[in-house]
Amino acid sequence: MKNIQDIRLVVCDMIGTTIRDHPKIEHCFSLSAKQTGLKMTDEEILAVQGWAIRQVFETYWERQTGERNNEWLKQVEHSYSVFRKILEDHYKQHEVLPIEGSVELFKFLMEKGIAIALTTGLYRKVADILLGKLGWIRDGLVQVSITSDEVEKGRPEPHMIRKAMDILGIYDRKTVINIGDTPSDIQSGKKAGVLLSCCVTNGSHSLGQLSSFNPDIAFGSLHDFRSFLQSRA
């Protein structure tokens, strides 16, 4: 990227990239799995961060039951319901905080006339709780948010990025940058064919865990990402 004027949209992940991951989503997965009898290791839970929540339970219950049948569906629904209650109860009762540098990034992009879209593996109800508390859409800092339950397939597929582009009327993929903190964030950007599919390494995954997924650029933080953009302003 030679000049920031070439960019029309930045797509950012929510939890772990722009919003603090507390309680860690991995912990909510672990609790719901243990409470419902689903066998998942901590490593497996970390590996699926960024996926659509229901997709995780569908995938790992299929592994445990051996097939997708009525019993599989019953277990998926149970685990998903328990997870939702754990997560929603926490976010309703506790403060939601932005990751350092996110608001500054949004304001910089807004000054440059670049749209901001948020994507998440979470579902609409929780996304609305988070965004309602942060006020980003209400205050005009973010133009659109897309959740995994609003598209045919969540990450690592590119559907959320493409839906954000469609809503905003942006059709040139090479005017879009994608950034997140998980392997599936990187993969979704690559599959969407955007100009840059980047990562931050201060979220759920380290540089060592993300480098094998070949991000176009790895940033230590959103501050570093903003500095990169400013150097091309």
Shape: globular
Q: Sheet with the most strands? A: 6 strands, parallel
Domain count: the total is: 2
What is the C-level CATH assignment of the largest domain?
Alpha Beta
Contiguous helical run count = 10
Write out the strand line-up for the largest beta sheet, numbering strands in chain order.
3-2-1-4-5-6
Our estimate of the beta-strand percent is 5-15%
Distance between the termini: 11 Å
Low-confidence stretches: none
Q: Mean of the pLDDT scores?
A: 95
At CATH's second level, what is the architecture of the largest domain?
3-Layer(aba) Sandwich
CATH topology of the largest domain: Rossmann fold
Number of strands: 6
Please write the string of helix (H) and strand (E) elements: EHHHHHEHEHEHEHEH
Query: Mind telling me the C-alpha Rg?
Result: 17 Å
Helix content: 40-55%
Structural class: alpha/beta
> What is the name of the CATH superfamily of the largest domain?
HAD superfamily/HAD-like
Which properties best describe this structure?
six-stranded parallel β-sheet; Rossmann fold; 2 domains; alpha/beta; 233 residues; 10 helices; DNA polymerase, domain 1
